[in-house]
Amino acid sequence: DADVTQTPRNRITKTGKRIMLECSQTKGHDRMYWYRQDPGLGLQLIYYSFDVKDINKGEISDGYSVSRQAQAKFSLSLESAIPNQTALYFCATSDRRDNEQFFGPGTRLTVL
Amino acid sequence: AQKVTQAQTEISVVEKEDVTLDCVYETRDTTYYLFWYKQPPSGELVFLIRRNSFDEQNEISGRYSWNFQKSTSSFNFTITASQVVDSAVYFCALSEAWGSAGGTSYGKLTFGQGTILTVHP
Question: Within its chain, how far is the Cα of B45 from the centroid?
């Protein structure tokens, strides 16, 4: 089984809808991250969490919110989706002693 | 602020050619990590290498090699005798090391924009 899982893997939604992307990990890591990938722009950090009570905004947090329900779960919400949020979203985890990040398989989101 | 630049947007080679992907970075820290990731057409991110700022020794792993030069802030990636399966997007990334001064930026990755490598048969 994969160490970092993301659900759903693909989602098509309409403008204005609320969407939640979920990430779970079995690696026992305390740090979790959400990134967004747009073509030609690499990955940009949306939010990161160093533990359950420590959540921080990244480079492009506007229009997004997160929830760290447990050490193993970190959800990303789009309160009112808009078309320019169409992108590939990655969750990642790392251990506090080692900054190597382990990525989930990605969620492809399309907002019509 | 951290910055990573991959000047080559797309590279196209014929199988068995050698190819070098360039990566230049900017950071104020003296302690940091550099990474390369591969993203094949299937979309997942595959970790290739991590290098800390105190280790400038070049590394070779099979057909892959990496050249880290602090003097020019570069961390270039070379594929020798390229194969069609090497076709992918390659990302260089920079992370301030855990425990570095300056607050809560530990562990975050700053990615370059990626280089699309196409290897033709």
Answer: 13
